[in-house]
Amino acid sequence: MSELRKNAIIASVSRDQLYGTNVFTLKDMANSLPKPVFASFLRQMRGRQTLDKATSDAVAHAVRIWAMDRGATHFSHWFQPQTDTTAEKHDSFLTLKSTSVLNEGVHAIDTFSGSQLLQSEPDASSFPSGGMRTTFEARGYTIWDTTSPMFIQPQANGTAVLYVPSVFISYNGDALDEKTVLLRSGETLSRAACDLLNLLDPAPPGHPRVVNQVFTTLGIEQEFFLVDRALYALRPDLKICGRSLIGNLPPRHQQMEDHYFGKIPSRVVSAISEVELELYKLGVPLKTRHNEVAPAQFEVAPIFEEAMIAVDHNLLTMDALHKVAHRHKLKALFHEKPFSGINGSGKHCNWALSTDRGENLLEPTEKPETNYRFLLFLVAVLDAVHKHGGLLRAGISSASNDHRLGANEAPPGIISAFLGEHLTEVLHSIEESRPVKNFSRPEIQSIKLGGRVLDVKVSTLPNIARDLTDRNRTSPFAFTGNKFEFRAVGSKQSPSFPVTLLNTAVAASLREVSAALRAQMGDRPYPTDADKLAVIKKFIASSRPVCFEGDNYSSAWAEEAERRGLQNIRSAPEGFEQLLEKSNHSMLIKEGVFNESELHSRYHILMERYAKDVLIEAGTLISIINTTVLPAVFEYRQVLASAASALSQIDGDSSPERRLLAELAPVVSKLQADVAKLDEVSKEVANIDDAPKQSHAAYKQILPIMEAVRAGADFLEYRVADKYWPLPKYTELLFTSS
User: Fold this and answer.
1) Which helix (H) or strand (E) holds 232?
2) Mean pLDDT of 393-405
3) 162: part of which helix (H) or strand (E)?
4) Are 210 and 203 in contact (CB under 8 A)?
5) Residue 397, helix vs strand vs coil
């Protein structure tokens, strides 16, 4: 489609007409199903009954008609294996029907049955299973997730595919995917939250419960780099590993602080605008786009949604960015640290709790010191982060995110929570049984705790309301007004697993809060304010070590965190061990989010993936040095040697050339030795059969040698004449996306 035609279409169609046009919504379903059938489906979707054959057949027929009217020829169960991406297999609606009775042979028809909608059968042995499935135990099932709407995706040839969001389980019913455990965690958190809410505000006898469901809400900010695709194609490390294994920063990169929120390059605006157009059709409420801190780095963010849908939409966002960038001759890089020395990319997960009445349980209101319901939920979250911080660190651990954590705008690996001075003072005043103090700074002494009006002292500018808390970009888990921002999640990983662990940990703490409240109540039918305050005080005191208001980057904080007993987990393999740590392990099993085999398989999958990632990077680096860097250096040395020889023959001064040759020689020799050592150690690590041992060995033995190899290659990049250096440099990669 030409740009003029596309722009005309965009201009003529408003967002409200585009939004959700490729989604089979509940409204579409209601319009195409008999009322009793639709009512039956709603009861099933809300967990009140199982889905019967008649209902599933009716839904399947309705969605096939809807999809085929929009060009669909195939359907696919769309699921999330443990690969941080999605998987799909396309099946045609085509069915052959025999009419031999009429002596007419066989003819083709389009059908889609309820059984085809409900489940499919991918090869489970070909996905990561941590030993739960082997090559001769291949059967696995995808099952339609009725809580996530079906949608169509147009294909390049003008047809479309109907996508059925699904979970993925083994033949024995074990979760092999990211979504099954996320759904379980949402249910266990809902039960725990509802129990506490109905304890605080019990319904009168004979009346229904006040709150029947609590949802986790999620807003996922997605950071990424966009680089020129032609330059990307010349970098084997970016193509294979997603990050540059060698390369020097240019003299100017992000230190001028002029890229953040700057004017978005025209080619990038065009690409992201097209992404928004694609995602609006899929019902993804993309709201924000802007330049990030590093050159060639950008961010998009949606309006917050229920967490299960938000995860699906984030994966669709990454897919759309990948496809549309390609059409604009760009490449989207989702690796957490594609370029050394500058800002890495995260996936900031803004997490909160909402009741089925639409109330945000993390809304402090104007006087949080008397909002006991808010405070009970707040201290439950803090308790979860304190007791299971190591588990949250496991959820964000990967070979790629390890390069980002604690460097250039990313929070460190020490899991702590930031509340801001307002809420910190509230908790301190409650713990110490005293009134809330005014703040020490003169300019805010008269400010109420619920916030204040800021006067900019310019007559033409309006006064604005200040938020309850400041923002702390160095904190991995920061309260930002009425939600927590889990900033440490990696940009390329699925948000499912870290959110699953967070949900489960909070559910366990909510149960402990409820138990403490019941113990405090005794025989009373409902808790008094004194009961609530006693429990709040108890949990404030126990979770105090995890609350930190300062600079998480500082070395002083690492020392202080150690004194507080907080873990400083420096590597992904060390983080993965937290899954099997006694308190984390028992909590995850007790809450029913993982069974024993699922948890152990997850541990082995993560360990194995880490080792594979590092070994792939090592192999790629060896290849680049041996086949690209060293030949370029040898060619340049030959030119220098020839020039020095020629100058000597005519009594010219060849000392500059000889000095450079002398400077290059030891570096080249050491680089060759380091590469040989890397090759040797990589082979040794690759031969380790035990996944955890292999993962730890990859971290301890391979990564340090890779850093030494990189140092040598980067030194040579600075010294070798530009015309001989074969790889695009950071200068081109970071400043050619416009």
Assistant:
1) helix 229-232
2) 95
3) strand 160-170
4) yes
5) coil
- Do 280 and 240 lie in a common domain? yes
**Consecutive H or E run containing 72:** strand 72-78
CB 139 within 8 A of CB 44: no
**Tokens of residue 210, six digits:** 């006040």
CA distance 405 to 473: 12
Dihedral pair phi/psi, residue 231, rounded to 5°: -70, -40
Distance from chain centroid for Cα 250: 29
Residue 641 is part of a domain; what is its CATH number?
A: 1.20.120.1560
276: in domain: yes
CA distances in angstroms from 616 to 6, 236, 349, 593, listed in the order given: 41, 12, 29, 32
pLDDT of residue 13: 55
Helix extents (H) in 282-420: 307-327, 372-387, 389-395
Q: What is the pTM of this model?
A: 0.93
The H or E element containing residue 167 is: strand 160-170
DSSP string, 287-327: EEEEE-SSTTEEEEEEPPEEHHHHHHHHHHHHHHHHHHHHH
Q: In one letter, which amino acid is 445?
A: Q
Q: What integer pLDDT is reported at residue 447 of this predicted model?
A: 39
Residue 263 lies inside a defined structural domain of this protein:
yes
Quick one: which H or E segment has residue 222? strand 214-228
Instruction: Judge whether 409 and 553 are in contact, CB under 8 Å.
Output: no
Tell me which H or E stretch contains 240. helix 236-241
Please list, in sequence order, all residues whose beta carbon lies within 8 angstroms of the beta carbon of residue 432, skipping any fewer than 6 positions away: none
Q: What are phi and psi of 452, to 5 degrees?
A: -155, 170
Give me the CATH number covering residue 129: 3.10.20.70
pLDDT > 90 in the chain, percent: 76
Using the Cα atoms of residue 492, residue 488, residue 188 and residue 311 in order, give the sign of their dihedral.
Answer: negative
C-alpha 334/C-alpha 319 separation (Å) is: 11
- Please list, in sequence order, all residues whose beta carbon lies within 8 angstroms of the beta carbon of residue 620, skipping any fewer than 6 positions away: 236, 237, 240, 241, 245
3-class DSSP assignment, residue 486: strand
Q: What angle do CA 620, 626, 627 make, to 5 degrees?
A: 85
Per-residue model confidence (pLDDT) at position 466: 67
In sequence order, which residues have a C-beta less than 8 Å from that of residue 675 and are 6 or more positions away? Answer: 621, 622, 625, 626, 709
- pLDDT of 738 reads 65
pLDDT band with cut points at 50, 70 and 90 for residue 460: confident
Q: Which parts of 398-437 are beta strand (E)? A: 417-418
Mean pLDDT of 375-383: 98
Q: Are 417 and 500 in contact (CB under 8 A)?
A: no
Residue-wise burial string across 432-445, b where 16 or more C-beta atoms lie within 10 A, e elsewhere: eeeebeebeeeeee
Question: b/e for 709-720, b at 16 or more Cβ within 10 A?
Answer: bbebbebbbeeb
What's the Cα-to-Cα distance from 710 to each of 439, 468, 469, 660, 716, rounded to whole Å?
50, 46, 42, 20, 10
Give the pLDDT score at 204: 74
Strand partners, 144: 166
Do 573 and 636 fall into the same domain?
Answer: no
Q: Who wins on pLDDT, 16 or 93?
A: 93
Q: Helices 655-686 & 630-649, crossing angle to 10 degrees?
A: 160
- Here the tokens at position 516 are 């403490």
**Parallel, antiparallel, or unpaired: how do β-strands 119-120 and 484-486 relate?**
unpaired
Distance, in Å, from the CA atom of 642 to the CA atom of 637, rounded to the nearest integer, reads 8
Residues 170 and 191 in one domain: no
Q: For the chain, what is the domain count?
A: 3
State the Cα–Cα distance between residues 493 and 346, nearest whole angstrom.
9
pLDDT of 596 over the 70 cut: yes
Type of residue numbered 33? L
H/E element, 144: strand 140-144
Single out the residue in 146, 174, 202 at which a domain terminates: 174
